[in-house]
Amino acid sequence: MVADDIRSWGGTVKAQHFVSRPSWREQLPELLARKEGRSVLGIGLRRSYGDSGLNPDGSLIDMTALDRVISFDPVTRLLRAEAGIAFDSILELFVQRGYFLPVTPGTRFVTLGGAVANDVHGKNHHSAGTIGRWVRRIGLIRSDGTEIELTPDDQTGLFAATIGGLGLTGLISWAEIELLPIDSAMMEAETIPFANLDAFFAVAAESDDAADYTVAWVDCLARGDRLGRGLFSRARHAPLGARLTKRAKPKLSMPFAMPGFMLNATSIGLFNGLYFYRGRRAAGPAITPYQPYFYPLDAIGHWNRMYGSRGMYQYQSVVPPATARDATREMLETISKAGEGSFLAVLKTFGGVPSPGLLSFPQAGTTLALDFPNKGQLTLDLLNRLDDIVREAGGRLYPAKDGRISASMFRAGYPAWETFANHVDPAFSSAFWRRVSQ
User: Fold this and answer.
1) Domains (range + CATH), the chain
2) How confident is the model at residue 250 (pLDDT cuts 50, 70, 90)?
3) What's the alpha-carbon Rg for the chain, to the nearest Å?
4) Could you give the CA distance from residue 20 to residue 66 in angstroms, rounded to a whole number?
5) Burial class of 418 by CB neighbour count within 10 A (0 to 12, 13 to 18, 19+)
6) Rounded to two decimals, what is the model's pTM?
7) What is the Cβ-side half-sphere exposure of residue 354, based on CA atoms within 13 angstroms?
C-alpha cells in the first residue's frame, strides 16, 4: 500500500490516499481485512469528475489490474468479467464478434465496476435505460470478508443499493451483463441543426421512435431567438458493414494544463458559432464508425487539461417532463447571461424506462450537462443559482459528475437516500458521501 496524491478528473480536488493495486480477486478479502482503521473505496479508471471516487486520507483499492473475462455465453449473450475491465477492452474483444455494449457513456475509458457503481446512461436511454437494467449478477465483497452474489430478484435491497451506489455498499469484484447483438461496427447517423430550444424539443420528440441513439450539442451562450440552438444527432447500428474497425487511439493529447484565461466568453462564443455553422453545412445522413459517434472526446488524450490548472466543474441535471422546457430555458438564460460554460454542452431527453438503483440518476425528462472552468467563488455562485432552478423544477444532479452539491440539494433529489444509507458498508466511504450524508 502506497501513499499517492490522487486528483479528480475535473481537477478541482487533489488529496493523498493509501492505494492498493491487487492483481487477483483472491487478494481482495485480505486487502479489506487489513485496511488499518481507514475507510476504503474501490476505484477504476477515475473518470468521475468530482469527489465521488475520492476518499482523502483513506484507502483506495485500484481494480484496474482485475480486467479479465471470466465467461461469455453467445446464446444468452451474457458476459461475466472482472470489475476492472475497461469498456474499451470489451469493445475490442466483442464488436468483431457481433456484440456491443447495451449502454455506454461518452467515454470508453471506464471500468465495468465503475459503470455499475454509477449506473451509467448513454445516448440510448430513451429505449434501453441505464446499464443497471442489463446487469444480471454482481459479485460483491463486504468489509467483513463476506462474498455475496447479487441478482435483480434480490429481496434484501442490496442489489438496488449497489446499482448506482457509488461503490459504497462493498467492493464490486465482478459483474455479469447482457450484450447487444449487432451486424456492423458502423453507425447510420444523421445530424440535424435546430434553431432554438423549442426546435430541440420538437426534433427530440420525433426522434425517440426513429432512432436508437439521440443526443444534442447546444450553444450555451446563444441568446434571444437563438437560445438553445444546436446540432441534434441521432443514429442506429448499421445493418451492413465491417465488424472490425481499427482501434481508435487519441489523435491529439493535451501535454499540460492550458492557461485558464484562454477559456472565456469570447473564445467560447467564437468556437460555438463556428461549430454550429460548420455542423449546419455538414448536416444530413452519414455512415461512420462507432468510435467517433459514441466517443468523440476520446480522440483527445487528457482533454480535461484544457480547463487549466484549477480544473473544472461539470454540472449535469435532469428535470421532469412537466417542468423541462421552462427549467432548461431558465438554466440556459442564466448561463448565457453569466458568460460562463464551455463548448462541451450536451442536451438530451431521457425516457421513462425506470432505473433499478436507489441512487440512479436518470429519470424521465431532460438532462443538460456542461463544463465550467473553475473560477472559484464566481463559478460556485453560478452553480448555486442553477441548483435553485433544478430544485424548483423537481430535478436532481448526477453524483458521478458532481464536486460540490450540498447535502440538502442531494437529499431533495434522491428521496431514497436514507434507505440506501442502510445498505452502505460501514467501512466504505468517499468525500462525496461524507459531504451529503452528514
Assistant:
1) 69-182 (3.30.465.10), 186-405 (3.30.70.2520)
2) low
3) 21
4) 12
5) exposed
6) 0.92
7) 4
